[in-house]
From TrEMBL, chain A:
FAD binds at G10, G11, G12, H13, A14, G15. Belongs to the MnmG family. GO terms for molecular function: flavin adenine dinucleotide binding. SMART domains: GIDA_assoc_3. This is tRNA uridine 5-carboxymethylaminomethyl modification enzyme MnmG. Keywords: Cytoplasm, FAD, Flavoprotein, NAD, tRNA processing. HAMAP family: MnmG_GidA. One of its GO terms (biological process) is tRNA methylation. It comes from Rhodovarius crocodyli. NAD-binding protein involved in the addition of a carboxymethylaminomethyl (cmnm) group at the wobble position (U34) of certain tRNAs, forming tRNA-cmnm(5)s(2)U34.
UniProtKB/TrEMBL annotation, chain B:
This is tRNA modification GTPase MnmE. InterPro entries: G_TrmE, GTP-bd, GTP-bd_TrmE_N, GTPase_MnmE, MnmE_dom2, MnmE_helical, P-loop_NTPase, Small_GTP-bd. Pfam families: MMR_HSR1, MnmE_helical, TrmE_N. CDD domains: trmE (cd04164), TrmE_N (cd14858). One of its GO terms (cellular component) is cytoplasm. Exhibits a very high intrinsic GTPase hydrolysis rate. Involved in the addition of a carboxymethylaminomethyl (cmnm) group at the wobble position (U34) of certain tRNAs, forming tRNA-cmnm(5)s(2)U34. GO terms for molecular function: GTP binding; GTPase activity; metal ion binding. Its cofactor is K(+). Binds 1 potassium ion per subunit.
Length: 615, 429
């Protein structure tokens, strides 16, 4: 068969999620990738989730995606980050067995209906009348489709730097696909250069674990997917070691050998994931840096030393490793390296992740300037949801708002502001952080997913049950309550102001011990933990959320005011040239988006609003 | 709001030099036509200005091509010899070249539209346009120069820094962050909050400067209050007669004292009366006294001091004993005679001190708009919710404060906060 609805190119985290999503929506889907056996490969650190990232995984999961389930099936070390902080910023994370993760992703794809997987690279795009209508494979076969999603990661002019060596490549061991890169270049898309790096991999059998501080996972692992009842893999410890003065001296002495400091890399790297060279130079007053030693698998001796990504020559890397406690005899299995690559300026995309100037062509993942498996998966899913619409002949409109999902925040940031470094999800990026929690992703998104057709029956049923239980419990907590005297008598010293307070009013007060609440309202004990957590969040954050309502009403009003595609910012009265240029570069889709654009003044937004209302 | 505009930028009236400012797309053409070619950008050159063969003036001219000008547009300045005839001739010439006189505030509006001024600076210049007196002009200048903007920016910097620490604490739990990062935030917030609150208190006075300082003259009937007003104002603003109760309503006169605009109010004499109209006058007199920053409590040297006026003195009013040319004063207070002028210079000096004190805080570049005060008050209110065991709720408080301040300086985006996080802390496992 060569006729499909949606073709996904690339079998990484964006591609697999995109292919699975399109197929779940009922679209006949083709996944084209170089090698079937590397589908679902974790090419960087073997962890899924974290703060912000774990939120994204839960959102993908709420739309019935595969990432959370695969991570649960492969996880060998689970940790709920920020456990001591409030639920809004808790982020679930799993260290995965790399092999098991690949296997889990491949198994989930294999059981997905409507999905064809072909181990074949894409060499060219089929374009008719300015629209992408398919892909030419390496075999010369033309595959036709209503929409194409490109998720090829760092393959555009990818160059690997290891000391002074430079090798054109995608990932280590994978050839860059030249044909497709040329096809994209012919489209004349705006490009920019980024870099990222990876640490050397160590042989865990040569690490002196006994000399290191061990970091166990949580005793009760918290799954990433709602659908996972229990984690069954044996759980491993990670280790912690530190760089030493000797490490730093060695790095300083060899800076010129580093690809970045030797001036051989021009791309911008991520600030939150600097190379060890960067750390030593920029934070010269720190006499040690923490390194996490993360096992890559249950029966795989490879260890990922997190925090020491480097582009120094292999010989120097050996010295660096040997200078750290517990690693004096550690053997490097694969050296670390830096990779430089082109990405497409995501401002060329609509909020649907379709290229504004090339209908039918969608981009997701690292090619859009992001970093991270979770960021890639969420984009793959959103791109596929819109590609399915495009293929069906409907105008794509599946966009999540900033107050609905981190996925919405990310895509809005990307398509509106562009990127200046590899984009990583952080909860700080959301102005609605208390609303966008990992624990309520289903409540936020699953109903929407059901409407979009990407949610299966099992999930839909689970969601309905959960939603009903939560709203019942919250309603009950709002209806039941007591007077201050009654609360005091039970042992909760609330203010004696004679005002009746509901359970919801008092549940989050420091003056209300859990046991007292449970004694006064015994039904709390009977709630499922996940339902009770929602009641507690409502009590804790409800007053804050209520305060944001006015702001949200304005946001929604402005989001509803669409800026037509063809609008000429140059003719709008009252817009300065600078404002015209900023708006032209980003082409915001709505008035709300325009008002969020960095550097756009309120006066310019007002001028734009006047123009739109008049038009 | 388009075209090329011109106006005298150096204020009305005679002066040694008058600056004619020109801004807009045809500014260069007009300057070249008058000065016989464009001078080097941003350099003063002496040129003979001619129009239709006639020499208009010998002037210093400056050429500011866009965007490096006050308005962000092509602009020119002609420093003319200040006579009205020269100004009128140059203005006529510019109009004949197709330019038009600027609307009030139009230069500033254009500067704002081209991103040359932030909102605080633009509002300062709006005040400048309306400024009547020297003190107001000085304050407006300071604000336009961005003294307020500078301070607001300083607060925004500190809030950004505090939020960055809070966000780092939330975002990078498993990183090797400095100990006590979170605790330090609370102490610094308390300090910042106190500064903002003090600024708000000062802001009320700054507003007084914009509105002027109110001085009310109160006292018993026939103490000579109207004579005193006339003597201080230097003109016959109030009707004076020997008959008690002549002044029945509040008579106001505006003047400048110590460079500050002042409203001086004469009021009906304070006494119990059955006359309905006079009773209303007395009520208004008391109201004027209550609303004034400075009260002059006037006694007559030839009459026993009345209880109500004495009470005013006890409440902080400035005691004045009038008619001291008739009888020597028997009580404490500024001894004056409105009629003979005796003691008036001392009284004026005392009043000027009081006016200066009243406007004092406002003489510093202060918050002169309700908008500024509201933004600061919102920031303080947000910071008041900071005390919370959960870091994400503390971050909400800081975000709220920063958003409120952003209404003065423009929004502070998350990128600014992240920049701070990544430059201050070594993040990255």
């Amino acid at each position: 068969m060569t006729q499909f609805d949606v073709i996904v190119v690339g079998g990484g985290h964006a591609g697999t999620e995109a292919a699975a999503t399109a197929a779940r929506c009922g679209a006949r889907t083709l996944l084209l990738t170089h090698k079937a056996e590397t589908i679902g490969e974790m090419s960087c650190n073997p962890a899924i989730g974290g703060i912000g990232k774990g939120h994204l995984v839960r959102e993908v999961d709420a739309l019935d995606g595969i990432m959370g389930r695969a991570a649960d099936a492969a996880g060998i070390h689970f940790k709920l980050l920020n456990r001591s902080k409030g639920p809004a910023v808790r982020g679930p994370r799993a260290q995965a067995d790399r092999k098991l993760y690949r296997a889990a992703v491949q198994a989930l794809l294999a059981e997905t209906a409507n999905l064809t997987i072909r181990a074949e690279g894409a060499e060219d795009l089929l374009i008719e009348a300015g629209r992408v209508v398919g892909v030419v494979g390496a075999s010369g076969t033309a595959f036709r489709a209503g929409a194409v999603v490109i998720t090829t990661g760092t393959f555009l002019r990818g160059v690997i730097h290891l000391g002074r060596e430079r090798t054109p490549a995608g990932r280590v061991g994978d050839a860059p696909s030249v044909g497709l890169a040329l096809a994209l270049e012919r489209l004349g898309l705006p490009m920019a250069r980024l870099k990222t790096g990876t640490p050397p991999r160590l042989d865990g059998r040569t690490i002196d674990w006994a000399a290191l501080e061990a970091q166990p996972g949580d005793a009760e692992p918290e799954p990433l997917s709602w659908m996972t009842a229990r984690i069954t893999n044996p759980q491993l410890h990670c280790g912690i070691t530190w760089t030493t003065e000797e490490t730093h001296a060695l790095i300083r002495a060899n800076l010129q050998e580093s690809a970045v400091y030797g001036g051989r890399i021009s791309g911008v790297g991520p600030r939150y994931c600097p190379s060890i060279e960067d750390k030593v130079v920029r934070f010269a007053d720190k006499n040690r840096h923490q390194i996490f030693l993360e096992p890559e698998g249950l029966d795989d001796p490879t260890v990922y030393p997190n925090g020491i990504s480097t582009s120094l020559p292999e010989s120097v890397q050996r010295g660096i490793i040997a200078s750290m406690p517990g690693l004096s005899r550690a053997v490097i299995m694969r050296p670390g390296y830096a990779i430089e690559y082109d990405h497409v300026d995501p401002r060329a995309l609509r909020p649907t992740l379709e290229l504004r100037d090339v209908p039918g062509l969608f981009l997701a993942g690292q090619i859009n300037g992001t970093t991270g498996y979770e960021e890639a998966a969420a984009q793959g899913m959103m791109a596929a949801l819109n590609a399915v619409q495009r293929a069906a002949g409907t105008e794509p409109d599946r966009v999540l708002a900033r107050d609905e999902a981190y996925a919405g925040v990310m895509i809005d940031d990307l398509t509106l502001q562009g990127v200046s470094e590899p984009y990583r999800m952080l909860t700080a990026r959301s102005e609605y952080r208390l609303r966008l929690r990992a624990d309520n992703a289903m409540l936020r998104l699953t109903a929407k997913g059901m409407e979009w057709g990407c949610v299966g029956q099992v999930r839909a049923d689970a969601f309905r049950g959960f939603q009903a239980a939560v709203s019942d419990a919250i309603a009950r907590a709002r209806a039941e309550g007591a007077t201050p005297a009654q609360y005091r008598a039970a042992g909760a010293p609330v203010n004696l102001d004679g005002r009746w307070r509901s359970l919801l009013d008092v549940l989050a007060l420091p003056a209300m011990p859990v046991e007292v609440a449970e004694t006064m309202f015994p039904w709390l004990r009977d709630l499922a933990p996940r339902v009770r957590a929602q009641v507690e969040c409502e009590a804790l954050y409800g007053p804050y959320l209520a305060r944001q309502e006015a702001e949200l009403a304005l946001l929604r009003r402005e989001e509803a005011l669409a800026i037509p595609d063809g609008v000429d910012f140059a003719v709008i009265a009252g817009l300065s040239r600078e404002m015209q240029q900023r708006l032209e570069a980003a082409r915001p889709a709505t008035l709300g988006a325009a008002s969020r654009l960095a550097g756009v003044t309120p006066a310019a937004v007002a001028a734009l609003a006047v123009h739109l209302r008049r038009a | 709001m388009s075209g090329t505009i011109f106006a005298i930028a150096s204020g009305a009236g005679r002066a040694g030099v008058a600056v004619m400012r020109v801004s807009g797309p045809e500014a260069g053409q007009a300057l070249a036509a008058l000065a016989g070619g464009l001078p080097r950008p941003r350099h003063a050159s002496l040129r003979r200005l001619r129009h239709r063969g006639e020499v208009l003036d010998e002037a210093l001219v400056l050429w500011f091509p866009a965007p490096h000008s006050y308005t962000g547009e092509d602009s020119a300045e002609l420093h003319l010899h200040g006579g009205p005839a020269v100004i009128a001739a140059v203005g006529d010439a510019l109009a004949m070249l197709g330019l038009r006189p600027a609307e009030p505030g139009e230069f500033t509006r254009r500067a704002f539209t081209h991103g040359k001024l932030d909102l605080t600076a633009a509002e300062g210049i709006a005040d400048l346009i309306a400024a009547e007196t020297e003190a107001q002009r000085r304050q407006a200048l300071r604000q336009a120069g961005g003294a307020l903007a500078l301070r607001v920016r300083g607060w925004v910097e500190r809030l950004t820094d505090l939020l960055a620490r809070q966000e780092a604490f939330i975002e990078f739990e498993d990183e090797d962050l400095p100990e006590g990062l979170d605790a330090a935030v609370a102490a610094d917030v308390a300090e910042l909050r106190a500064e903002l609150a003090a600024e708000i208190a000062g802001a009320a006075r700054a507003e007084a400067l914009r509105e002027g300082v109110r001085i009310a003259i109160l006292g018993a009937p026939n103490a000579g209050k109207s004579s005193l007003l006339n003597a201080l104002a230097g003109r016959e603003a109030a009707i004076v007669s020997p008959q008690a109760g002549t002044t029945r309503d509040v008579v106001e006169t505006r003047m400048v004292m110590a460079g500050v605009p002042v409203t001086l109010s004469d009021t009906a004499g304070l006494r119990e009366t059955d006359d309905v109209i006079e009773a209303e006058g007395v009520r208004r007199a008391r109201a004027a006294g209550a609303g004034a920053e400075i009260v002059l409590a006037v006694f007559a040297a030839d009459a026993p001091p009345d209880a109500e006026t004495r009470a005013l003195v006890e409440a902080g009013a400035l005691a004045v004993v009038n008619k001291c040319d008739v009888v020597p004063p028997m009580m404490a207070g500024q001894a004056v005679s409105a009629r003979s002028g005796m003691g008036l210079a001392q009284l004026r000096a005392a009043l000027e001190d009081a006016v200066r004190a009243s406007a004092g805080v406002a003489m510093e570049a202060g918050l002169t708009r309700p908008r500024h005060r509201a933004a600061l008050a919102d920031a303080v209110a947000a910071l008041d919710t900071l005390e919370n065991p959960l870091p994400e709720l503390r971050a909400e408080a800081l975000r709220g404060a920063l958003a409120a301040m952003g209404r003065l300086t423009g929004r502070v985006g998350v990128e600014a906060v992240l920049d701070r996080v990544f430059s201050e802390f070594c993040i990255g496992k």
